[in-house]
Amino acid sequence: MRILLSGATGFIGRSLLSTLLHESHQIYALVRMNSQQLDPRIIQVSIDDLKLIDECFDVFINLAGENIANKPWTKKRKRALFESRVTLTNRVKSALQQPPKTLISMSAVGFYGAETDGTFYENTPPGPGFAHDLCAAWEHSADSFSSQQTRVVIYRLGVVLGVGGALEKMRLPFKLGLGGPIAGGKQWFPWIHIDDVLQAICFAMNDNSYSGTYNLVAPQFIEQKYFAKAYGLSLKRPAFLPMPKWLLDLMLGEMASLLTEGARIVPHRLEQKGFEFKFDDVEGALSDIALRY
């Protein structure tokens, strides 16, 4: 397959490339400038380069987007998050000479807003908030590719667990025994192992029955305090030091909602398809990741 990939140097992108390079795909990585991190077998292209490519891509895998949890959500930061997701997706669509046969685009469970109550399926109305506004706009830009020529698949990701990503940021404080429940720890913690993310992407590449939006989260429902205890155990450390909501609000402002809120998300459409999760309990997922360090 001819594959165009954005976000190739990110957490999911690096893991996906390791998988794709074992197969006979022709991979184009969308970059702002050439990166020495990427395998020499990968063709690096800019937005302007796309305008010169006449052939159709079989798949465009859209993983680009600055880390939403890296910095507080100032007006400038919100604009950067929007541009790295929505604006970039729109620019790729405008630059491509021919539409891709398939678009696989990421979103997040933040689509459902800053919620702690209720259960959310793919068609459940969302709550308000910046995370929802950002995800909804990103999904809309991905949906604009949909046509008789292009099949669109959108994955709403939970917290992706693997070597890197969110766990990397948590690892040091938990190793020091400073992990624990956040804001009481009763908010839901939708999660997914990186291997299941890669599996879902590959299935959507190769199975034309995948179409529309899917919640890409493990089927196990856990609260944040349960996750904290399980992560501490995987590192052989205690995890009982609480982090109060007021302190996070003071430190992070609106962005604190990523940690203090969490909805109960159901991977309903994947379950309907018979998707078999490699990791459906968080203890097993965290044990596997601990072995990879």
Protein described:
The chain has helices at about 10-20, 45-50, 75-95, 130-145, 165-175, 195-205, 225-235, 245-250, 255-260, 270, 280-290; strands at about 1-5, 25-30, 45, 60, 100-110, 120, 150-155, 160, 190-195, 210-215, 265. With about 290 residues, it is of the alpha/beta class. The chain has one domain (about 1-290): Rossmann fold. It has a seven-stranded parallel β-sheet with strand order 3-2-1-4-5-7-10, with helices on both faces. α5 links the parallel β8 (about 160) and β9 (about 190-195). The protein is globular. The two termini are about 30 Å apart. The mean pLDDT is about 95. Belongs to the NAD(P)-dependent epimerase/dehydratase family. SDR39U1 subfamily. InterPro entries: DUF1731, Epimerase_deHydtase, NAD(P)-bd_dom_sf, SDR39U1. This is TIGR01777 family oxidoreductase.
| Share of residues in helices | 25-40%
CATH topology-level name: Rossmann fold
**Could you tell me the strand content as a percent range?**
15-25%
Number of strands: 11
Family: Belongs to the NAD(P)-dependent epimerase/dehydratase family. SDR39U1 subfamily.
Protein name: TIGR01777 family oxidoreductase
Domain NAD-dependent epimerase/dehydratase: 3-215
Domain DUF1731: 243-289
